[in-house]
Structure formats: structure tokens, C-alpha cells
Amino acid sequence: MTQSTPGGGRRKRGQKERCRWCGREFVVTPGPGRPGRYCRQGCRQQAYLARKLAAAHGLGDDDLVIGRSSLEDLQSRLYCLQAALEDVDRDLAASAEPADVAEALAWLLENARPLAEVWIEPRTLEA
Length: 127
Prior knowledge:
The chain is mostly helical. It has three helices and four strands.
């Protein structure tokens, strides 16, 4: 059985998903009803409490509250990736030799990995 995902794709039971609260990967267990969206009951409860708190403060489902330092770190890593893309575009326009392409790819990967490692945790009242 499959179910639509928010991105419009399909997901199957037994497939790995990311918890909508903490971001951990988990396997969607087979059984009756809708496939789970959370890795454990505690995450489901925290998401429920966060939705209630957000609604009490007039925030919508798509509104986020994150720490300034988390946002600045994310923006910094994104800027590094954007600069690396510009560098690679410029370098590959000048030369398409295999050694130059390999060097450009290595540079791009070096600058993409720090951004790929970012995961911003949801904030709770305890945070």
C-alpha cells in the first residue's frame, strides 16, 4: 500500500522515512491505518504540543521559530556552497579537461558536505 507524501511522491510501508519532529530515520511499519510520520510516541506528542503552542501564538503550520545562531550557521554554509558553484562554473567554462573537472567536483563536494550535514532541531519550551 502506498500513501502520498507532502512533496507529491508516494511512499510504501517498510520504506525508510524521516521523523517529522526530530528528523531521525525510521522504517514505516506495516499494518492497518495510515503509515506513521514519527519515529516514536514522544516525537508525536512533542509535535502535537508544538502545534498547539504555535496556534496559541498565531503561527501557522508552515511558520518556524529557530535560533538566530542556527539560521546564521545555515546561511553561512549556504553562502559557501553558492560561492563554490560560481567557482566551478567559472573553472569549467575555462577548461573541460578531465583533471580540471575532477578538481572542480572535489571542490564542490568539499563545500557541499557541511551544508548536507546541517539538521535544525525543532525548538521546544525547554530549549
